[in-house]
Amino acid sequence: MERLKIGVIGTGSISDLHLGAYQKNEHATILAVCDLNEQRAKEKAEKYGASRVYTDYRALLADPEIDAVSICTWNHSHAEISIAALNAGKHVLVEKPLSVTVEEAIRVEEAVEKTGRLLQVGFVRRYAANTRILKQFIDAGDLGEIYYAKASCLRRLGNPGGWFADKVRSGGGPVLDLGVHMIDICWYLMGCPKVKSVTGNTYHKLGNRANVQNLSFYRAADYDASKNTVEDLANALIRFDNGASLMVDVSFTLHAKQDEISVKLYGEKGGAEIEPELFLVSEKHNTILNMTPQVDNLKFDFVEAFESEIDHFVDCCLNGREPLSPVQHGVELMKMLCGIYESSEKGKEICFD
Ligand SMILES: NC(=O)c1ccc[n+]([C@@H]2O[C@H](COP(=O)([O-])OP(=O)(O)OC[C@H]3O[C@@H](n4cnc5c(N)ncnc54)[C@H](O)[C@@H]3O)[C@@H](O)[C@H]2O)c1
Q1: Which of 141, 221, 229, 269 is the right S-S partner for 167, CB 3.0 to 4.6 Å?
Q2: 25 lies in the same domain as 120
Q3: What local confidence, expressed as pLDDT, does residue 221 receive?
Q4: What's the pLDDT at 1?
Q5: Which residue range is the domain that position 116 belongs to?
Q6: Which pLDDT score is estimated for 97?
Q7: So what's the pLDDT on residue 197?
């Protein structure tokens, strides 16, 4: 069978998950990598057996042998590189978020329509085993109509610094970095209803707290604490046109007792949790049941989820299938995420037609 020839653009932290998964996929070959930082690109090329190294993504895209690319660069370049890649005839797997503005996201959607190429947004949680299991229960109607979801991803000390904290390159803080995952997984499991309105609040109260000692936290590849122009906390209430609602809060830093992650869905017939681990709630014969699925891994498994995401992308490219996380979903997410910032700035609810 034909193998898909891959180029990976941006070879920082998350690229290892992409490169590792392509390397394991027997229908893909890693041909090229590209990074502004040549040394970093060369190291990754060596590690994963890429024969071509670029420092300008345009040169990689001009390489006629490359069929598809993973875009693992800073958020503000996702839309620009996606559009250029589609126009160069490549299929695209772009890391989340799709873009940093709704306008950009729409331009990517137009490029997908114009070129007929495939674009998959890296909503990796959709591809995780625990999500796939829960989706089967939801699709079979076990939860009934899901009318409420609630998600939290609160880091007490977790501003990664570097580009994550620089609004120009990231487009925003925990809303775009963590909120995108929390909102997407709820929205996807709720059946992707159309967003009706967003009310949000963002806070810049604590700064990046680089002063804190004796407690370690994740730092970006090029950590730099000197610049911090992003929010440290956000919350939001999102309404959908089917009457369902979603409440979410996310932080890079907060005076919380501990880090916290939870994703909960409530339906007419049952409920479910997907974070911190898969759990189901139901009622039968007038009795409430709390149910723990007996599966290998109830928790989100990062490596497994990326492998499943990449396998799906390769399969879609080679066999002309529609991705599970298409560009239209990336656009809808950008409406919700940007809606949170706009609502907070204007101090009022943002409504969509
Ligand atoms: N799906 C997930 O769970 C997940 C987790 C982490 C990061 N991400 C996303 O992955 C992306 C990268 O994050 P990261 O943590 O790997 O950051 P990183 O800083 O470790 O790596 C980004 C790399 O991209 C390179 N780069 C930036 N702009 C470039 C350009 N125009 N051309 C070529 N190279 C360029 C940088 O030099 C850097 O090496 C972000 O969009 C982030 O939101 C997703």
Answers
A1: 229
A2: yes
A3: 82
A4: 66
A5: 4-125+305-326
A6: 98
A7: 98
> Is the domain of 119 the same as that of 162?
no
pLDDT at 353: 82
Question: Is 170 buried (19+), middle (13-18) or exposed (0-12) by CB count in 10 A?
Answer: buried
The DSSP annotation for 14-80 comes to: THHHHHHHHHH-TTEEEEEEE-SSHHHHHHHHHHHT-SEEESSHHHHHT-TT--EEEE-S-GGGHHH
Which of 132, 340, 311, 148 lies closest to 240, judged by CA?
A: 148
Q: Going by CA atoms, what residue is nearest to atom 28 of ligand 1?
A: 73
Closest-CA residue to 151 (of 260, 300, 258, 267): 260
Same domain? For 107 and 241 the reply is no
Give residue 336's pLDDT. 98
Q: What parts of the chain have a pLDDT lower than 70? A: 1
CATH number at residue 106: 3.40.50.720
- Pairwise CA distance, residues 53 & 61, whole Å: 12
Distance between CA atoms of 269 and 20, rounded to whole angstroms? 40
Among protein residues, the one with the nearest Cα to ligand 1's atom 6 is 14
22 contacts: CB under 8 Å, gap ≥ 6: 6, 8, 28, 29, 30, 48, 70, 310, 314
Positive or negative, the Cα torsion across 349, 247, 123, 250?
Answer: positive
Please give the model's pTM, rounded to 2 decimal places.
0.98
Q: Looking at the structure, do residues 204 and 263 belong to the same domain, yes or no?
A: yes
Residues with CB under 6 A from ligand 1: 9-15, 34-37, 40, 57, 72-75, 77, 95-96, 122, 124, 163, 177, 220-221
> Hey, whose CA ends up nearest to atom 39 of ligand 1?
12
| Domain match, 204 and 225 both | yes
Question: How many distinct structural domains can be found in the chain?
Answer: 2
Q: Name residue 287's beta-bridge partners.
A: 284
Clarify whether residues 61 and 164 are in a common domain: no
Q: What is the token pair recorded at 144?
A: 């009934």
